[in-house]
Amino acid sequence: MIKGVLCSSGALITRFNGRDPRLLREFWPHIKADGIEFMIYPSWDGRLDEITETVKSFSTELRVPIPVLHADKRIGELLSMGSAEDIEEARARFRTGCGIARELGAGLMVLHLWGGPASDRNIGVNISVLGDLMREAREHGVTLTVENVVCAVETPLTHIRRIMAEYPDALFTVDTKMAEFHLETQATVDCVELWSGRTAHLHVNDYSGGYKDFGDLRVRHIGEGHVDFGPFFKRVRESGYSGYATVESTSVLPDGSVDFAKLNRSLDTVRENLK
After folding, report:
1. How many Cβ atoms from other residues are within 10 Å of residue 254's Cβ?
2. Within 10 Å of residue 42's Cβ, how many Cβ atoms?
3. What distance in Å separates the CA atoms of residue 33 and residue 246, rounded to the nearest whole number?
4. Using CA atoms, how far apart are residues 258 and 95, in angstroms rounded to an integer?
5. Contact 76, 114 (CB under 8 A)
6. Distances (CA, A) of 169 to 5, 90, 165
């Protein structure tokens, strides 16, 4: 049985409403979630102290748990670029994220270990840094998980298998959309090692694009794409997984409002299948 179903802050605050974290206080009463997975945006550079205080106040006053923090996606992009300066900046951003996780009481962090235009073209560099990042997270009391994010060259599962071999204590976030992007949803479900204590978090989203369709990376609600969730839900239940599951599906309309009915249907679907 999972701990609960979280709503990603990224499903609620986007460019359409100015990525304003103060909106979480307004939106929360309309959401049937057990907590928030808070996502750090690179566009918040220079304002992170203020934003952290805003979110911490929201969490404390409304008693909203924030057990998971999604690290700045720029970290993976910088690691993929690979220069000494890029890697140092990635480490600094990661360190900042660990501090924010501790401030918000988030015990788990989701990391895009690779990303951006360079993606996994020099994946050895990205993987070589992981050990240091895992140690940094532990020093902050945070459990680090690597997400199966989309790749330009190989597939997420290829890299996950390599990471599992090189880092016996590495943990992962499994995202259904990311897997389906590479048509490896079933392969991910069938990866016994991944479901033998190595999966620490879930992102449950749909995908409507084709194979490696970088033009359609929109995070869809369950039922809006072609992910076969039946085998996935079955695997999660049978594996004894007991962490959280997050819905990230985009719910903000062009006018900045949120389609709460659609969002709550996705949250309910995950809860009904995994709790």
Report:
1. 8
2. 12
3. 9
4. 32
5. yes
6. 25, 22, 10
Q: What is the pTM of this model?
A: 0.97
Question: Taking the C-alpha atoms of 115, 118, 119 and 122 in order, what is their torsion angle to the nearest 10 degrees?
Answer: -120
Length of the chain equals 275
Domain that holds residue 176: 4-274
pLDDT of res. 275: 83
CB burial of 195-207 (b: ≥16 within 10 Å; e: otherwise) equals: beebbbbbbbbbb
Total number of domains constituting the chain: 1
Task: Return phi, psi of residue 87, to 5°.
Answer: -65, -40
**What is the rounded (10 degree) CA torsion for 175, 150, 249, 6?**
40
Residue 255, Cβ neighbours under 10 Å: how many? 7
120 contacts 108 by C-beta, under 8 angstroms: no
Token pair for 185: 């949803």
Quick check: 241 and 195 in contact, CB under 8 A?
yes
Buried b vs exposed e over 219-247: b needs ≥16 C-beta within 10 Å?
A: bbbbebbebebeebbebbeeeebebbbbb
Write the CATH number for 28: 3.20.20.150
* CA proximity to 274, closest of 163, 199, 169, 186: 199
Q: Counting beta carbons within 10 angstroms of the beta carbon of residue 139, is it exposed (0 to 12), middle (13 to 18) or buried (19 or more)?
A: exposed
Q: Helix, strand, or coil here: 19? A: coil
- The answer to whether 205 and 183 have CB atoms below 8 angstroms apart is no
- Tell me the average confidence (pLDDT) per consecutive run of 10 residues in the chain, 275 residues long: 96 96 98 98 97 98 98 98 97 98 98 97 98 98 98 98 98 98 98 98 97 93 97 97 97 96 98 94
